[in-house]
Structure formats: structure tokens, C-alpha cells
Amino acid sequence: MIDNLILIDPGFHSFDGHQYNYLKNIVLSAQSRGMPCHILSNENATDTIKQEFSPVAAFNFLGVEFINDFSTNPTMNYNYNFFHFNLRFLSSLVAATQNLPPLDANTVAFFSTANFRHLLGILSWLDLFPETKRPRPVILLRDRDHLPERSAPLHRMMLPILASPRFRARLCSESPAMVAHYAGLAGSVVDLIPIPIDPERYRRTDMDRSKGAPVVAFLGQARLSKGFQLLPDILERLWTSHPDAEALVQTQLGEFDPQHDAPI
What is this structure's pTM? Predict the structure, then answer.
């Protein structure tokens, strides 16, 4: 029986991106069932987010963060960043949950943005609980890394442990392609939980979709992990069959991996 829900996202601070859509829908669903729900967010949440969700200001960093290099060896810098981030994530998570009502096996902990940088922290936090009182983790895996040689070994190590009967993590992702990718690394089922968007908000009854040139829109950060560098090839293929097609790009420069996003 589930009688308590905590939603955890270090990057949740505004209406941007997937976090708001997931958390808004989950909170509404929990409220309709009379279920207590707590959100652990970034401490820089906007006033509007604070008014709507009353989140706990748990994290003073975003979902992905890099610190200054200390070596001429890029692999060493990357590995240190990985462990540094995990320690910050774990310590912030422990401090925040200590101020919540007691968590137990009837609590679901939903991590709405998880990549290989979060997984060790999540596992370490779960391991602090006695097995019979351990919260049930639901982990939404996002952003297939554009350098899989650095993240795949970590996923292959961590995901099977989290999905094992000892930790009972429910792994999920937001698209069929991501589900297949992570299922191969986890060696277990990964569920599909699409970003909850109400299509009626965007439906145009006054427009015939068959009329006019097709428009391909790219919305998001200019990051390798989002495939921004693939746009030229995609558009060339599109124009081969639809020479009248148009492209609309609304983006901002990526901020999370400057070393590899710089060419963009």
C-alpha cells in the first residue's frame, strides 16, 4: 500500500522542461487520492513555483553540474566531477528527507530526472534504510549520453543493482527509443512514461494540417545530448522528399557540458 509520495529533482525551479509537466500531473493525481506529497526542488525555485507546489528547497545545484578542472587529463577531471556530484546529491538528499515525516516501505520516491551522475547517490541513499523499511524508488532515466563510452559502464553497473529484488527500483523513461536503450543496459524491464502533455492545448481546429508546407520545429537546448548536431543531416534528408519544408529552431546554448558542446 502506498500512502506517501516524495518527488525529487535537483533541477526543478521553474516552468521549463519536463519537470513541471511530470510533477504537476503527479501532484494532481496524488491530491485526488488524498495522498501526502512532498517535492524536493532546487532552492532557486521561482515564487510562482513556490506558491503552486510549496517545495522543500533541498538542492543548491542543478541536475548536472561541472566544477573546475584540476588536471590536464580530461578523463580524470570527468571522473572527479562524477564523484563530486554524487556526494553533493547524496548529502543534500539525506539532509532534506530528514526533515520530512518518516519514510518507509509505503513511501514512493520518484526521481524525475536521473542520469548516470545521480544513480550512485540514489543507491547510497536507499542503502541507508533497513531493507524492510526502504522507500520504493521510481527512477525516470533521461538524456542518453552523447559519449556512451563514459556513461554506459556506470549504467551497466548501477541499473541491475537498483532493479534487483533488494532495491525494487522501477526504471522508466520517456520515449520508446530511450526505453530500449536503458533496458539493454539494465538487463531488465524499463517502463514507458511519456511526458504528460495535454494535446488539446495545442489543437488548432481552424487549421487544415494537410495545407501548406510542413514545418519541422526543434525546441530545446543546443546540446549534443539532445542531438542538436544532427539537425543539418535531418533537414537535408527531409528536403530531398519535401523541398518546400521549413525549419523552425528555438534554442539556447547548452550550459551543462561546455567541453563537448563548444563545437555547436
Answer: 0.80
